[in-house]
Please model this.
Amino acid sequence: MSTYTIHGATGEWEVVIGLEVHAQVTSNAKLFSGASTAFGAEPNTQVSLVDAAMPGMLPVPNRECIRQAVRTGMAIEAEINKWSRFDRKNYFYADLPQGYQISQLYHPLVGEGQLLIEADEKAGIAEDKVIGIERIHVEQDAGKLMHDQHPTMSYVDLNRSGVALMEIVSRPHMRSPAEAGAYVRKLRSILRYVGSCDGNMEEGSMRADVNVSVRRAGTQELGTRTETKNVNSVRFVMQVIEYEANRQVDVLESGGTVDQETRLFDVATGTTRTMRSKEDAHDYRYFPDPDLLPLVLDDSFLEECRASLPELPDAKRQRYESELGLTPYNARELTAEVETFARFETLLAATAATIGKPEKDVATQVANWALSVAPGVVKGLGDEADLTNSTPAAQATILAMQDKGEISGGQAKEIYEIVLRQGGDPEAIADEKGLKQVSDTGAIEAAIDGIIAANADKVEEYRGGKDKLFGFFVGQTMKAMQGKANPAVVNQILKDKLG
Model:
């Protein structure tokens, strides 16, 4: 079991973490209106009469937003509530035209679910762990205040007002910044697989409220928690937890008490600061929204939602290990993001077809190329790399030449560099630049004969038991062949001749 302990002056403390992730639902229109949800539009250009709370305008639920939330619930193995209801959360703020937010408190669309985070020794997670998810409820987003447009006034942009959000509420099951980071990354991956949220935290379409409390190590009673609002990156989530946990320990050890409050994270200083005292549900005077009927889902709708789900990360990772024979590390890395597995599967299919072998027989070669070799070459070239030249067909051709023994790993990198710089057919590049390996046994044998004749003393030492000298003969042969000899052929001929 991985542990994250804060060593205070009076003893050890444990941190308890829960996350409320707000994920913008992938939909062309808002939750209760037909206004666009496109990112980056000019302020107040995507606002319907409903979003602006004009008198007499009634909300109408967007079926696609409900469908995406249900699919998300199914992806985390959650209970889907066939009957749910919208409530009004009442508070006054300048970016909330109605004076209330339409949300779900008492009867959410999605109930209990779970999410698995995998062991990662480098990150400090010693074993797999299941994080409970309490609920997913659907709600509308508020607008945005802009404080930098005028020296004495704040402006309001209502483009986000009414955009559909899923609030995904975890149980307080996380015990370290590393576990919380892994949870957010895994949740973002699932949302992207499902297609219910793009997960772009930097654009605000996914953000987290971070709940942190501390307690004496070995105790079970929960401490007073604080909630840090609207944290918009995995790294910042982890920073908030580390800072806030240490701050609370310092407060308690100095004889103070932790206030239940809402806090904000200051990116520049890496610290949190008080925003307001933490409200309870009764402070918002929740009541059922009288303008909206309850949501009632029938079996055919649920079956349609379930049938539309793709293969999810955990299932894909297990398949990569069992059917393709990939290592757990490679399988985890390749399935972490939608873009990564999509590129891998496209390249795998192209390589298997080019070589003429089943996908499982070339999967390890393709995985190593996709995760290590190709990214290394791209990084080394920097701005010189034109990724439009890096087609699956070009990469598959390089891997096929390597599989046939026509080129070495080093030559494969050289050819790929040229492809990235200027494009072209990898086979033609290999011929033109003289980058193919020599597999002509006659030429290699002649070179080896010369090396053996010139190093008779080392031959005797090798035959006398100095096995490490075999590497010397390999090196001399490759040098004589200008690095172009097929290593497998060199090794076999040397073994035959040295005895």
About this structure: The first helix runs from residue 63 to 75. Residues 27 and 64 are 7 Å apart (CA to CA).
